[in-house]
Design brief:
A six-stranded mixed β-sheet has the order 6-2-1-7-17-16, covered by helices on one side. A six-stranded antiparallel β-sheet has the order 10-11-12-13-9-14. Strands 3-5-4 form a three-stranded antiparallel β-sheet. Helix 1 (about 15-25) links the parallel strand 1 (about 5-10) and strand 2 (about 30-35). The chain has helices spanning about 15-25, 65-75, 80-85, 100-115, 145-155, 205-215, 240-245, 295-305, 330, 355-375, 385-400, 405, 440-460, and strands at about 5-10, 30-35, 55-60, 90, 95-100, 115-120, 135, 160-165, 170, 180, 200-205, 270-275, 285, 315, 320-325, 335-340, 340-345. The chain has two domains: about 5-165 and about 320-420, FAD/NAD(P)-binding domain (3-Layer(bba) Sandwich), CATH 3.50.50.60; about 170-315, Elongation Factor Tu (Ef-tu), domain 3 (Beta Barrel), CATH 2.40.30. It is α+β, with helices and mostly antiparallel strands. The radius of gyration is 23 Å and the shape is globular. About 30% of the residues lie in helices and about 15% in strands. Helix 3 packs across helix 4.
Length: about 450
């Protein structure tokens, strides 16, 4: 093991997990946390792994839910975050909710008591010192301005975002292919394309007007002052565009020009919603230009008014709020190292994952990878068939950049979901009588994915 310590910057969920994993592997770790020397707008305490929003880690069902599977994989990898969550959970049905203060106290105590971890309070203002040769940056959505500016200068102006303009993402198998059709605008063949690169959802005038009415009437998320972001004409929320005029959307992201519905070619569509492939597997589709502040439950109702999306299942809903995150597919390698400065490895929400557990999972992987570097060894990332592997594959290479088609950046934070996993083959159970219902197929598919994942994570763990 190298005598040089691993420096972990940030003691949120990802940083705490990274420090723990590296220390458990035998490495010496210095964990840097700027609180309470420098305070943030979101945190209330100086404790580690403070939960600044919800106290829920979402579903704990590891057989039928992707985040529940991630919980179980992390447990099998000696996760500090999951150990503390399990020790301080509260009644929450099928979800894993925790006592936020007791949870943070438990993580803080474990870090303080670990013989291989030293804690330093204070801001890392700018890039870490050159002599730090093994660094994990886990500074989260509230990365200090000095460090964020240094990272941006190092990686380029388009490599770091300071807010999310998130469009919803839909599971491909829930889109009605009898209604939508594949076509690029004007049949344009771009790089990697074939002229049929988008799925198109047609709307007549009556459907469009009903959709606009629902958008204008929809309740919006109310953000705290520090979460608010300025609007730019290139990424206005769709409800703001709708308020500016009834036809604004159909001359913007819903314009019907250059597209012909092959099922009814003589009738011109009044408006068209386009879906763009969002991952290399083709299992996820992004609603082009549909960033929104509409409340989540209402989003689902309104977007299912769109022809072809009546039964849509959403991997992610839309949003617009302050966040600091990297354009990870462009600037990070599969080992989470910054290509422009490989001594820096990134973890947590700043890499472009969404959610407590997802952030901690990337911290877990980063900590183990950093410890392997300290030993002079190479550690592969988890298999892509696992929740952790699927997550890291998405943020470092599985996402399809929109630059090839429009010159626009499209990478946005993502929760773990089954759309990130490679497909799995399933067969009708032996002895099953009658038609195999779609709900039964879905359950069987999820169970096959999770069973495969738990088998595959053990060798890596």
């Amino acid at each position: 093991m190298s005598k040089q310590p691993i420096h972990v910057i940030g003691a949120g969920l990802a940083g705490s997990e990274a420090a723990w994993q590296a220390a458990e592997a035998g490495a010496k770790v210095i964990l840097h946390e700027m609180r309470p020397v420098i305070k943030t707008d979101a945190h209330q305490t100086e404790g580690f792994a403070e939960l600044v929003c919800s106290n829920s880690f979402r579903s704990d069902d590891h057989q039928h839910n992707a985040v529940g599977l991630l919980h179980e994989e992390m447990r099998r990898c000696n996760s500090l975050i999951m150990r503390a969550a399990d020790a301080h959970k509260l009644p929450a049905g099928g979800a894993l909710a925790v006592d936020r203060d007791a949870f943070s106290d438990a993580v803080t105590a474990a870090i303080h008591n670990h013989p291989n971890i030293e804690i330093e309070r204070g801001e890392i203002a700018g890039l870490p010192p050159e002599e730090w040769d093994n660094v994990v940056v886990a500074t989260g959505p509230l990365t200090s301005p000095a460090l964020a500016e240094a990272i941006q200068k190092l990686t380029g102006e388009d490599a770091l975002a300071f807010f999310d303009a998130i469009a919803p993402i839909i599971h491909g198998d829930s889109i009605d292919r009898d209604i939508v059709w594949a076509q690029s605008r004007y049949d344009k063949v771009g790089p990697m394309g074939n002229g049929q690169d988008y799925l198109n959802c047609p709307m007549d005038e009556k459907q469009y007007n009903a959709f606009i009415d629902a958008l204008i009437a929809a309740p919006l998320h109310e953000f705290k002052e520090w979460e608010k972001v300025p609007y730019f004409d290139g990424c206005l929320p769709i409800e703001i565009m709708a308020e500016r005029g009834r036809d604004t959307l159909r001359w913007g992201p819903m314009k019907p020009v250059g597209l012909t519905n092959p099922r009814n070619p003589t009738v011109k569509c009044h408006a068209i919603v386009q879906l763009r492939q969002d991952n290399a597997l083709g299992t996820l589709w992004n609603m082009v230009g549909f960033q929104t502040k509409v409340r989540y439950g209402v989003q689902t109702e309104i977007f299912r008014m769109i022809p072809g999306l009546e039964n849509a299942q959403f991997a992610r809903l839309g949003g617009l709020h302050r966040n600091t995150f990297l354009n990870s597919p462009k600037v990070l390698g599969a080992d989470l190292k910054l290509r422009a400065m490989p001594r820096l490895r990134f973890a947590g929400q700043v890499t472009g994952v969404e959610g407590y557990v997802e952030s901690a999972a990337v911290g877990l992987m980063a900590g183990r990878l950093a410890a392997a570097d300290a030993r002079g060894e190479t550690l592969s990332i988890p298999p892509g068939t696992t929740a952790m592997g699927a997550l890291i594959n998405h943020i470092t290479g599985g996402h399809l950049e929109a630059e090839a088609y429009s010159g626009a950046r499209s990478f946005q934070p993502m929760n773990v979901n089954f759309g990130l996993f490679p497909p799995v083959s399933i067969t009708k159970p032996e002895g099953h009588v009658g038609r195999w219902k779609s709900t039964e197929k879905t359950i069987a598919k999820k169970e096959a994915i999770t069973s495969r994942a738990l088998d595959d994570i053990m060798a890596w763990a």
